[in-house]
Amino acid sequence: MPVTAMPKRYVFLCFACNGFGASSRKDSITCSPRCRVRLHRDPEAREQLEFVRDEIGVPPGYYARSMAARALAPELMENCRDVDAITDKVFEIACRMAKETQ
Ligand SMILES: [Zn+2]
Fold first, then answer.
1. Ligand 1 ion: residues within 5 Å (CB)
2. pLDDT for position 4
3. Per-residue confidence of the chain (102 residues) as pLDDT tens digits?
4. How far, in Å, from the CA of 52 to the mean position of ligand 1?
5. What is the whole-number distance in angstroms between the Cα of residue 55 and the centre of ligand 1?
6. How far apart are CA 67 and CA 73, in angstroms?
7. Does 42 reside within a domain?
8. N or C, fewer C-beta in 10 Å, the chain?
């Protein structure tokens, strides 16, 4: 069985399309270059980003990862404060689901 070392990936919800994204960066908030442009042009999406950053006072990347964790594994959010551990677990689950649906 081949074993490939995979780089650490963070799963997040895209601010522009609300779909899931995965990135090696903790501060990713859009799933693609297309969504990055869309975020800059869409006033509603930009408003949400500014609200999270300025009103709630949470780094947008942190918020995006938390939203993915909440959507994919709500039971993990109950007692766990370590978002990194949660997103790792979520990625694991997402990979398993992707393999199972192939
Ligand atoms: Zn997107």
1. 14, 16-17, 31, 35
2. 72
3. 566 777 789 999 999 999 999 999 999 999 999 999 999 999 989 988 998 888 878 889 988 998 898 888 877 666 655 666 656 666 666 666 666 665
4. 17
5. 23
6. 10
7. yes
8. N
End-to-end CA distance of the chain: 18
Residue 51 lies in a domain: yes
Ligand 1 geometric centre to CA of 64 (Å): 11
Q: How many domains does the chain have?
A: 1
Cα–Cα distance, 80 to 69 (Å, whole number): 11
In a domain, 75, yes or no: yes
Q: Per the domain annotation, does 94 fall within a domain?
A: yes
pLDDT value for 94: 63
